[in-house]
Amino acid sequence: MLDLNQFKAFLFDVDRTLVNASYQFPLGVVTIINKLYQQGFEVGICTGRSFQSVRHSVLPVFDGLNHKGYHVISGGAEAINTQGEVFFQEPISPEVVKKLHTDVKRQGRFVAASYNTLFMDKKHLTQYQGAWDIPLASFAEYQNEPITLIDIHEVDFEDECFKSLQDQITIKQMTSNKGRPYVAITAKDVTKATGLKHWAQLSQINLDSVIGFGDSANDIEFLQAVGYGVAMGNAVSELKKVADEVIGSIDENGLKVYLEKLLADNKI
């Protein structure tokens, strides 16, 4: 059993870890994060989401704490502070971005995330323009802006285009909140562990002193990189295998229950 005072920071994946399938924080989660921060722990996110998709939904929680720390976003391709300043960025080459858009056979939407905008297929743009509080643009407007993350939905994981680009990109097979398959793409060898190295340098906190929480395939390197990795009960089986501990699911408010007990016992 470990003492909680051996650790200095808590980092959280977002979807189905920090927020539920409806993109809402479960009851009491924000309060317990606040309590962690007030007790002197660093807190932050380590997410596959891009800046614009956390700007108005997740980061305000940390801004409300007067938080001056850092976060890993875009699947590890960016490190930012709570105010949105970028301290590290590893984009995918524009040529690869364009080839993926042109050559990958898909049924669902194509989303390429830059810092300021999400570029997507024209046929999906109208559908999501009013539904998301995020700057959206047609991919036809893409002008070689740095793209750190690409999500391609309802796609064959064995697409020949992916194979032809395997020396230039990292692909994670993912499942959306609605249970639909998609791939998350970053530059070659970029995972959440990549962004964590920069987070550690910026925060001046050794990763061995971090407790991390996640649920998805793109959290494997994250939980392996930190001192103690916790998988949600709703996590994919591959993540549960590498985690130090598995807790309750997001639907059981597992994160809140676990953190409350952790603070009460001061033991892991």
Give a short overview.
This protein has 268 residues and is of the alpha/beta class.
Task: Supply the key terms.
single chain; about 270 residues; alpha/beta; Rossmann fold; Hypothetical Protein, Haloacid Dehalogenase-like Hydrolase, Chain: A, domain 2; five-stranded parallel β-sheet; 14 strands
Describe the structure.
The structure is a single chain. The protein has two domains: 4-89 and 190-265, Rossmann fold (3-Layer(aba) Sandwich); 94-187, 2-Layer Sandwich (Hypothetical Protein, Haloacid Dehalogenase-like Hydrolase, Chain: A, domain 2). The chain is 29% helix and 22% strand. The chain is built from ten helices and 14 strands. It has a six-stranded mixed β-sheet. A five-stranded parallel β-sheet has the order 2-1-12-13-14. A three-stranded antiparallel β-sheet has the order 3-4-5, with helices on one face. Helix 9 (237-242) links the parallel strand 13 and strand 14. The termini are close together.
